[in-house]
């Protein structure tokens, strides 16, 4: 066991085998490339890693609060320790982490914590809908715009007037020039094809990307089966590009990372470091056994008082506003009475309380009751 640097709780010890300590704060001395153990032999993949680093993380602050080198560490209670055991098992085994629990308990925030603490760059997020398919998450192809551009180009060529074909470029082009022209024409498809967050996560990198597949239970029943091949083989094929491999072996396409483009060879993408995948489910939806055995499942409930205090402190630069503990106590009491509440409802109340009681030593019970009535409507009720 080792005491984590920067933790305010001196008794906060983490097992030596943990890669992720659960603070959600960047670990300045972490060298993940050397400290991350190799994958099991059956989870190794042969993609050639791109040395370019991923885009920087610019979104976690909205979900976790400002990053700090030292700060309020989340206490390691029994439930939190069990959760982190599962997270680290998934990282070591290169398996997706399946989080099941009610909305608003911090499932999605966990993915941001992993990305920021391990310094893995921008989080990739795929929000699943009832119409989502695996292909939607892998890439998007826009053939209609491509056809429109081709028609526009043909119209432009026709307005230039007829030419004597005996002396045209087409008539005098050599075999090599013709091949180069075909290759250039084939590569133009890359302007109309963009990898989605799921497809971008499996690009070969030296270090894994963190992928959040949010609201997985909203997807079609077949979605889990469609992802099995991807999760097992660590890669996928893009038919639109594979069909052009004989004339354009390499085609540049866009990615889910803004402004980033990559070369796809022979229409196939194979990872080198399996991504850290976090799937969230709000309901106990039945999933096929074949899918469940390839994941590390864990049930997530509402955090306890110390965890809620740490979460609030993270959004207020390590110092919870006066009256936070009273609000948390009332928040937990409401949950025990059967009200289904979410963490953002607590944060809203803390922020509003800090703004309305700046001149007071602390909130009155009436103020706490008023905020609870104002903001903490049950998520299962219709708004009045």
What can be said about this structure in brief?
With 384 residues, the protein is an alpha/beta fold.
Task: Write up this protein.
There is one protein chain. This protein is an alpha/beta fold and about 375 residues long. It has a domain at about 320-375. It is about 40% helix and about 15% strand. It contains 16 helices and 13 strands. It has helices spanning about 30-35, 60-65, 80-95, 105-115, 135-140, 145-160, 170, 175-185, 195-200, 225-235, 240, 290, 305-315, 325-335, 345-355, 365-375, and strands at about 1-5, 15, 95-100, 125, 140, 195, 210-215, 235, 250-255, 260-265, 270, 275-280, 295-300. The strands form five sheets. It has a five-stranded parallel sheet with strand order 4-7-12-3-13. A hairpin with a 6-residue loop joins strand 9 (about 250-255) and strand 10. Helix 15 (about 345-355) crosses helix 16. The chain is elongated and about 85 Å long.
